[in-house]
Amino acid sequence: MNQPSNPLIVQSDMSVLLEVMNPLFEEARDALSSFAELQKSPEYMHTYKITSLSLWNAASSGTGADGVIHILNKYSKHPLPDIVSATIINNSERYGKVRLVEEAGRFFLECNDETVSLEVRAALKTPGGGRIEVSSAFRGQMKQILLKIGYPVVDLAGYGDAAEFSIALKDSFTPRWYQNEAADAFHAGGSVMGGSGVIVLPCGAGKTMVGITVMDKVGVETLILTTGITALRQWRDELLDKSYIPPEHIGEYSGEVKEIKPVTITTYQTLTHRRSKDDPFTHFELFNHRNWGLIIYDEVHMLPAPVFRVTSEIQSKRRLGLTATLIREDGLEGDVFSLISSKKYDLPWKALEKTGYIAEASCTEVRVPLTDADRYEYAIAPKRNKFRIAAENKQKLAALTLLLEKHSRDNVLVIGQYVQQLKHISQSIGAPMITGSTKNDERELLYTAFKRGEIKTLVLSKVANFAIDLPDANVAIEISGAFGSRQEEAQRLGRILRPKPGDNKAWFYALVSDDTNELDFSAKRQMFLTEQGYKYSIVRHEGLATKQAVKQGDDSSA
Predict the structure, then answer these.
(1) Which of 146, 154, 191, 226 pairs with 320 at a CA distance of 20 to 30 A?
(2) Residue 16: beta bridge partners?
(3) Any idea where the domains of the chain sit in the sequence?
(4) How many Å apart are CA 321 and CA 298, to the nearest integer?
(5) Which CATH architecture has domain 356-557?
């Protein structure tokens, strides 16, 4: 039956169109995002795609084919095409058709369907019939192979014995309701079904607290992988603050210190260090140095490809992935699914904003014209050079200056991609700069000064894409970015989403060169945040200047 007032149009190619102006837009968007991926987000019609991986993640979270079809029927204008229903059923039912079990230390694949069993045997190059025995060392690689042929393995083989270690949470630490829910979702099923999975929560929502809560529930020695030395030390500080772990039981394994303790924290950079591209990775033995019972992958969407390789070999360990978005620009979402595990908990960003657990963010795209000289250079440049010319538009400094005047009382992060551009900006506005080459001691001094209010503006390179603890930052101004990276845009907005005292407001600005290919990349960058419910207002540089002049006039008349 046709329902013309509904917001969805479901098409036979598994794409879904969602009307933005429909009264049911937000309700349908939140339901749709649990099993579909946003592809395009222009002003009036958003396009989603239902994929096998999105359906498997939904199935692992408890939303099977019936639930997906029910949601589509509820919000669709027209009856679902038969091919859509059939594809959803077929793909959803593939989750669970192949299971890995353990018996007396041996691992077996079980397939109840003989045809599926034949496909699996062919993919694994295993002749014969009946159950398929799998080497423990092949456990991860096998899951990757079968995912590629469309059969995600439900791993019921459990985990090996691990060294016990209790962290004993302090009475002063009470996890928020959603942090408890996430930890419970990870641990659901106990020693067999529970113990591996990915938790997706917005930046600023306290994913570290989820990790600490999981550590308390599991009670085993833990290896924590982080994005950098700053994040490493934030984890250590939070563990000391929230639990009774003695400091001497927490080890830092970094370029500066090599400690291995019952709880050890390292960085992806340390793990992937090697003298040359042909040499082995120097520190991979850390994964086997102790009898770890839990490995935590912080910001799992940034997991380097080499770490996937070693992760495939340690499937007997519990694995917790923490992230704000499962999007990977390298297309390795399937490896996260097969080697870390499926998504176990996901909470929309706007849901937490409404409850005050993250700041209410206003997003604005400021379109800045090129100078005549840059316009000429852009016009004649090869295609590969055009983006850089647009990104480093000299006119952006004037727009930035206006925004800094507008937010003179706020705590501002200026974030960019290109170090030379940032150096010029840092010198022009008289603000200190932090890049990847800034020494850790200097970084900590600047972060501390920012937290104390002694510095109101910091200029940051791609270090802003990683976990930095600057809870008072309430304005982020993006000067340039990495082409169309959706995950980077989410991380950068996340830098200002910690809850704020008072009105709990935050402002995010993206400066984009008008009439250039930077507009196209910017639209792609914004897609994930659009899916989460954020809307970008668009202003032009000259409009920004007019608004500022009006504001200054009002101030002087007052």
Answers:
(1) 146
(2) 10, 48
(3) 8-94, 98-155, 177-347, 356-557
(4) 6
(5) 3-Layer(aba) Sandwich (3.40)
The share of the chain scoring above pLDDT 70, in percent, equals 96
Binned at pLDDT 50, 70 and 90, residue 554 comes out as very low
The pTM for the full model equals 0.86
Cα separation of 492 and 499, whole Å?
A: 16
**Within its chain, how far is the Cα of 188 from the centroid?**
23
Q: Read off the pLDDT of each residue in 304-317 and give the average, rounded to a whole number.
A: 85
Measured between alpha carbons, how far is residue 364 from residues 193, 429, 471, 540 in Å? 44, 21, 21, 10
Closest C-alpha among 485, 40, 531, 178 to residue 302: 485
Residues 6+ apart with CB under 8 A from 184: none
pLDDT digits (tens, 9 = 90+) for 151-165: 999 988 888 888 999
Report the DSSP pairing between strands 475-478 and 536-540: unpaired
403's tokens: 């925004």
State how far the alpha carbon of 451 is from the alpha carbons of 75, 220, 408, in Å: 46, 34, 16
Task: State how far the Cα of 144 lies from the Cα of 335, in Å rounded to an integer.
Answer: 7
Tens of pLDDT, residues 62-120: 899 999 999 999 999 999 999 999 999 999 999 989 999 989 889 999 998 888 999 99
Q: Which residues contact 76 (CB under 8 A, 6 or more apart)?
A: 3, 6, 8, 9, 10
- Residue pair 146/152 in contact (Cβ under 8 Å)? The answer is yes
Which tokens belong to 115? 């045809």
* Mean pLDDT (whole number) for 529-550: 74
Q: What is the DSSP letter of 339?
A: I
Please give the mean pLDDT across all residues of the chain: 89
Domain 177-347, CATH homologous superfamily name and number: P-loop containing nucleotide triphosphate hydrolases (3.40.50.300)
Place of tokens 């019609």: 45
